[in-house]
Amino acid sequence: MQDTLHICFGTMTGNAETLATEAHERAQTDGWSSRLLNLMDVAPGDLTDWRLALFVVSTWGDGEPPDDAADFWYALESADLDLSGLTYSVLGLGDKDYDDFNGFARCLDERLAALGATRLIDRVEADLDFEDTYAEWVNRVFPQLDQRRQPVPSAD
Fold first, then answer.
1. Is residue 59 part of a domain?
2. Looking at the DSSP assignment, which residues form a beta bridge with residue 123?
3. Rounded Cα–Cα distance for residues 74 and 95 (Å)
4. Which domain holds residue 114?
5. Smaller CB count within 10 Å for the chain: N or C?
6. Entry pTM
7. Contact (CB, 8 A) for 65 and 9
8. What's the whole-number mean pLDDT along residues 36-45?
9. Is 156 a member of any domain?
């Protein structure tokens, strides 16, 4: 069975969704089976069945998750899960004018690691001009993903 790459986003203004959609399109172009998911449609327990995930999330206010990721985050904070089978990467979108720049992305990354998940690459944090940072992230993530791709069994 081919690996599925889960690409999740949490957003207030739509920027994280746009970038997650771009990553999803790149994944499909690269031959991945991928799913694009808003974190409002993901339960923390879902992560136990996943092998590969990308998270593109914005931070709102003083380090909080965006509204569509809040329920997921608060459940993940208190969840007792074994995520040792999950490899992930986090791209955070923030605004350096706020004290807790990319606070939610940092907390999400740290919580996933604390539950046993493995970072594909270190968290990347973007400011308001995120296009170049996104391009750097995606161009580092996909070669790493390709090294972990499980071959599709032949139909012999």
1. yes
2. none
3. 22
4. 4-148
5. C
6. 0.91
7. no
8. 97
9. no
pLDDT at 131: 81
Sign of CA dihedral 111, 108, 83, 85: negative
CATH number reported for the structural domain that contains residue 34 in this entry: 3.40.50.360
Q: How confident is the model at residue 125 (pLDDT cuts 50, 70, 90)?
A: confident
Residue 127 maps to a domain: yes
pLDDT of residue 126: 77
DSSP of the chain? ---EEEEEEE-SSSHHHHHHHHHHHHHHHTT-EEEEEEGGG--GGGGGG-SEEEEEEE-BTTTBPPHHHHHHHHHHHH-----TT-EEEEEEE--TTSTTTTHHHHHHHHHHHHTT-EESS--EEE-S--HHHHHHHHHHHHHHHHHHPPPPPP--
Would you say residue 70 lies in a domain?
yes
pLDDT category at 124 given cuts 50, 70, 90 is confident
Overall domain count for the chain: 1
